[in-house]
């Protein structure tokens, strides 16, 4: 009921999002991931659809159901997420990067399951840096309106403002990692060129609806 009565602030707009963690293989049965549940990204996807947008969600592995009316593309690695975004970005009006993307992948991943070795109880992994999906989209000549998310552990006000400028995006949404990962509620700080404002702690769907209105207002001006 509440969903159907959201103001249609994104009517006719096309929205692309990333959500969830990525999974970077070590071998065919193991890998490296992070504590992102995908709840915030899925809530934003749902809120964008409620607001009248046509929504494509590129999602890392999560336990969540596809939000009603949303087109979901499932990926595992950061590279796959990058490729899916780049294939789908043309014609989008808004890109919201909510995913917790692994900054590095295992460069010496094994094609076979690794076995314990009687003579050596260590394992050496090498890492290579993943592409920055948000920076890639923000650098496109015909770029959509770009919104980033940043999960910090401290100094949110300084890091958030600096990250927005470094990423060259109009809006960055900051939160504190250990106060959001896996939880149903969160609080957000919005950084734009005017400064920062806060959306106080609430459930993620409520915050996502507020965020969509904040984004739509900035896209219109
Ligand atoms: N992001 C991305 N691709 C990456 C890394 C990050 O698209 N390879 C996006 C995230 O989805 C998020 C934003 O960039 O919207 C900020 O992510 P964050 O990890 O906070 O920024 P980094 O530039 O990776 O900086 P840090 O060294 O603090 O991790
Ligand atoms: Ca990062």
From TrEMBL:
CTP binds at residues 103, 113, 131-134, 149, 163, 167. It catalyses: N-[(R)-4-phosphopantothenoyl]-L-cysteine + H(+) = (R)-4'-phosphopantetheine + CO2; (R)-4'-phosphopantothenate + L-cysteine + CTP = N-[(R)-4-phosphopantothenoyl]-L-cysteine + CMP + diphosphate + H(+). Its EC number is 4.1.1.36, 6.3.2.5. Pathway: Cofactor biosynthesis; coenzyme A biosynthesis; CoA from (R)-pantothenate: step 2/5; Cofactor biosynthesis; coenzyme A biosynthesis; CoA from (R)-pantothenate: step 3/5. Binds 1 FMN per subunit. One of its GO terms (molecular function) is phosphopantothenoylcysteine decarboxylase activity. The keyword NAD does not apply. Residues 15-221 are annotated as: Phosphopantothenate--cysteine ligase. Residues 10-217 form the DNA/pantothenate metabolism flavoprotein C-terminal domain. In the C-terminal section; belongs to the PPC synthetase family. In the N-terminal section; belongs to the HFCD (homo-oligomeric flavin containing Cys decarboxylase) superfamily. This is Coenzyme A biosynthesis bifunctional protein CoaBC. It comes from Herbaspirillum robiniae. The chain holds residues 178 to 398 of 398 of the full protein.
